[in-house]
UniProtKB/TrEMBL annotation:
XPG-I domain span: 199-255
Protein name in UniProt: XPG-I domain-containing protein
Pfam families: XPG_I (PF00867)
Annotated InterPro entries: 5-3_exonuclease_C_sf, HhH2, PIN-like_dom_sf, XPG-I_dom, XPG/Rad2
Record-level Gene Ontology MF annotations: 5'-3' exonuclease activity; 5'-flap endonuclease activity; DNA binding; metal ion binding
Keywords, sorted A to Z: Endonuclease, Hydrolase, Magnesium, Metal-binding, Nuclease
Keyword Metal-binding on entry: yes
Keyword Nuclease attributed: yes
Cross-referenced SMART domains: HhH2
Length: 331
């Protein structure tokens, strides 16, 4: 999630922006806002995979009579319980830090999937688009689970939490004395809005960097070595102002879709460094040269938009910048 290839670009071009932080003790005495969105996405996927695999084995060992009943609600509860464990473990590690008054951590959760969304999804769940294993009200779910257990072709099974599921996970965290904020949607943005100048956001969503989080903790729960990125230091190393970095992020695009085809971080960095800002590039002949490229034309055709429509889309620079120009509520 977030800005396309931003971390790869920074790692290769400006590796000094990352500071290796092997221990969570480093954040003692600091405010840390934890973006639970990607953490939950990963843990839900792992939990659903493990639970469904085990349930399939139990189904195959069961008698014909026992196979008539599939406990969809039990599967949902089990997946949510397993998915909460990494967050509970993180909370335990944070609470174990005692120096400098400990870490003032806030877990920020939310779900973009409402109860109404689940109701609507249950009406169209049989069209091959997949089935949410956490949506026990979906009348198509039992058939999908049975087909999966029997090894038959089945629509994709996935785990997407509703507001109710998020509240259950939040309650488990509160029972473990964690501080909770529930916000909808755009959890990374909400974390940044909470920040004061020296606070931290724990998130692997690169939007947290684009939104201007003062400090971002990355890969704490991942396979790589944990590292932190200070926003002001990054700007100094890149030679950008905050406004120029926003323009850079706009050009890079987000969620695997570039603003202008064939402009990734390297070209975006060169463009902003050369023209000073996004407006200067969009008003220059250089944009025409990019849009006239045959490769760009092919991609626009796949996206089913014309060059004129793309020009109109990129014309409102202030609106494009506004997506990343987040005002922190606590400053």
């Amino acid at each position: 999630m977030g800005i396309n290839n931003l971390i790869q670009f920074l790692s290769l071009r400006f590796p000094e922006v990352f500071h290796v932080t092997p221990s969570i003790d480093h954040f003692a005495g600091c405010n840390v806002f934890i973006d639970c969105a990607i953490l939950l996405q990963r843990s839900l996927h792992a939990a659903a995979t493990g639970v469904l695999r085990r349930r399939r084995q139990e189904y195959l060992r069961a008698s014909e009579a026992e196979r008539q009943y599939i406990d969809a609600r039990g599967i949902r509860v089990e997946i949510c319980n397993h998915a909460a464990k990494p967050l509970l473990r993180l909370n335990q590690e944070i609470r174990a830090v005692k120096s400098k008054g400990g870490i003032k951590a806030t877990f920020v959760l939310g779900s973009s999937l409402t109860v109404r969304d689940l109701y609507i999804a249950s009406k169209v769940g049989g069209d091959g688009k997949g089935a949410n294993v956490l949506d026990s009200r979906n009348p198509h779910l039992l058939n999908c689970l049975r087909a999966f257990f029997e090894g038959k072709p089945v629509a994709r099974l996935y785990a997407s939490p509703s507001e109710k599921d998020i509240l259950v996970i939040a309650q488990r965290l509160m029972d473990a004395f964690a501080r909770i904020e529930i916000r909808q949607p755009d959890i990374a943005q909400r974390c940044v809005e909470f920040c004061e100048d020296d606070d931290y956001v724990l998130s692997d969503d690169t939007n947290a960097i684009a939104f201007g989080a003062p400090n971002v903790i990355r890969d704490y729960c991942g396979r790589n070595v944990c590292n932190t990125l200070n926003h002001n230091r990054m700007l100094d190393i890149m030679g950008f102002s905050r406004q120029q970095f926003i323009d850079f992020c706009v050009l890079c695009g987000s969620d695997d879709t570039s603003l202008i085809p064939h402009i990734g971080p390297e070209r975006a960095y060169h463009i902003i460094s050369s023209f000073g800002d996004l407006q200067g590039f969009l008003e220059s002949p250089a944009l025409d040269a990019v849009l006239q490229s045959p490769n760009v034309a092919k991609i626009l055709e796949k996206r089913q938009i014309t060059v004129e429509q793309l020009r109109e889309r990129v014309g409102d620079v202030e609106a494009l910048r506004g997506a990343f120009d987040i005002r922190r509520a606590r400053t």
